[in-house]
Amino acid sequence: MVLCELEAHCPGASVHTCSADVSDADAIARAIERGAAAAGGVDALVCSAGIAQPARFDEIAPAAFERMLRVNVGGCASACRAALPFLRAAGARHGAARVVLVSS
After folding, report:
1. Is the C or the N end of the chain the one with fewer CB within 10 Å?
2. Which of 90, 95, 99, 100 lies closest to 41 in space, CA to CA?
3. pLDDT in tens, 75-88
4. Cα dihedral value 86, 47, 17, 64, nearest 10
């Protein structure tokens, strides 16, 4: 759903966005807490972050590969972990909460 369509489909709904260094679990948790405070909770989480190494696997330095995993996998896991208490509360209030993970 395009954000401009949100009001038509969900009257009274609002969207709050947060950004953080997705390789830093503490920064993610702080961003989600700020977003939850601003929005009065978290009904949905959308994770859209990632990096790539434009090289063959055997040419990627181990440290670069580990950073890619920290961002692409660890960042989403950290965001889900940080949002989970808010999502559970939303589920209790509304009967559902959503997580959307975007990858390439």
Report:
1. C
2. 90
3. 999 999 999 999 99
4. 120
